Amino acid sequence: MKKENVLTVVVTLLVGLLGGYLIFNISAHKDAPTNVGVPEGSGSPTDYKVRIVEAEKIVARDPANAQAWNQLANDYFDTDQAQKAVNAYSKVLELEPKNVNAMTDQGIMYRKIGWYDKAIANFERAQTINPNHLQSLYNLGVVYMVDLKQPQKAREIWTKYLQFDSISPTAQQIKADLASMPPQGGK
Question: pLDDT tens digit string along 119-136?
């Protein structure tokens, strides 16, 4: 793979992860109760440790608290604890089976672990629940492009993405990635 293509893929992944994090946090905060009991901080390692400990205490006392499980999963995600994040997102999805944001974030963690089939299953399930969920669609394309080396499948998925969004920074990155791909039918 050319150096430019590798750089493009890395930038795409970073933009996707940041975009997913921002989209999820904005939507989660809009619908979230104002006081979950987990302290918020600046995102320093100490803040994460404190929040994780507090969230673990909350879910131990109240295992049906989806918001606390979600915060815990997100903090595990942000601190690169993929397996713990997967497990916590599983709890969220037990309580909220149609939570496409948790489903997508869990898929990203499955991908990080190397469980591409599970990542794809999560992204596709999120798409079944909400065909307009761009973060799951974007990440589905990433798995096919980067991990499974199936650029034509990625092209198909990202072309669908561009039908919903053609102007965001993620869309611009997708367009650049598509332009750098071999032509359809080529290798």
Answer: 999 999 999 999 999 999
